[in-house]
Amino acid sequence: MVLESAFARQFEKNIRNTIRKFDLISVDDKLLVAVSGGKDSTAILYVLKKLGYAVEAITIDVLIGNYTKQNLKNIKEFCKEQDIKLHIVSFREAYGSSLCHIVSLIKSKGWNLQSCTVCGVLRRYLVNFYARKLKAGKVVTGHNLDDEAQTFMMNLFKNKKEMNARLGPCPGIIRDSKFVPRIKPLYLTSEKDIEKYSKEMKFPVKYGRCPCAIDAYRNYIRNMLDNLEKDYPNIKQNIVKYLLNNLDQWKKEVLKQKGKLNACKKCKEPSRSEVCRACQLLGFVKKPN
Ligand code: SF4
Ligand SMILES: [Zn+2]
Question: Which end of the chain, N or C, is less packed with Cβ atoms under 10 Å?
């Protein structure tokens, strides 16, 4: 057992405060934590269990060779040790092949989409599907303050205000019973603190970056913000504060234009367009059992 430092106690307290501040969890919520084997999702899974919430974990194996093999091994070991029920779903069983293969098929159709975009859409689809099936009240993700500041800047530089309206500690705009709400309890926690906590707690996690993320636009923005923060220490916090100050207004504007969800014409899952993003990418998603 690891003896907790003052830093670790403060870290956990900050997360409790974030949950309260944004009213993220109700007492009877069953939580499904989406875990990847990285420090962020492992840390939030651990802290939520420690705070007494009813947690289960789900991991989507996107099959990136040794990288995901090692992550899966770590997640299994961690959940066993913490006595947390773990659900494992693989891209092969859900979509018939690995992420890399799916991305190369999509590129061969002339769509220049990055791995992370495809991975994000297809993983979210499965997590929502299983969260509903498992009757989870909320899906918890490991997104942190750095992720949120980066995503905001990425959208800003692409002039995508509507995408920024979908951010926040409870992301999304349109509520629908087929969408299990997602929450980000690490919303105000920096990546640096999460790494420090994870190392202090000796979590079995990999600290390197995913090999498929090498070409991601996010890397440019991450480096830019990290460099800026050397001279302007609170820059990421200020970006997130700015976002929070404007979020309600942006959501209202988007809701006015796109007030309701459709059922995807192909797979019947909820979608803002006639055909959901997953079916657009894959042609058709055969629903997992
Ligand atoms: S870094 Fe990108 S490709 Fe790798 S697991 Fe995350 S979203 Fe998927
Ligand atoms: Zn669909």
Answer: N
Query: Residue 180: which of 117, 144, 143, 126 has the closest Cα?
Result: 126
Surrounding residues of ion ligand 2, Cβ less than 5 A: 264, 266-267, 276, 279
Q: Of the bound ligands, which one is closest to the alpha carbon of residue 115?
A: 1
Per-residue pLDDT 10s for the chain (289 aa) are: 677 899 999 999 999 999 999 999 998 899 999 999 999 999 999 999 999 999 999 999 999 999 999 999 999 999 999 999 999 999 999 999 999 999 988 888 888 888 888 999 999 999 999 999 999 999 999 999 999 999 999 999 999 999 999 999 999 888 888 899 999 999 999 999 999 999 999 999 988 888 887 656 888 999 999 999 999 999 999 999 999 999 999 999 988 886 677 889 988 888 888 899 999 988 755 555 5
Q: How much distance in Å is there from the Cα of 274 to the middle of ligand 2?
A: 9
Task: Tell me the pTM.
Answer: 0.93
**Ligand 1 contact, 213 CB (< 6 A):** yes
The CATH architecture to which 6-282 belongs is 3-Layer(aba) Sandwich (3.40)
Token pair 């920024």: residue: 164
Q: For residue 119, give the ligand 1 atom closest to its CA.
A: 8
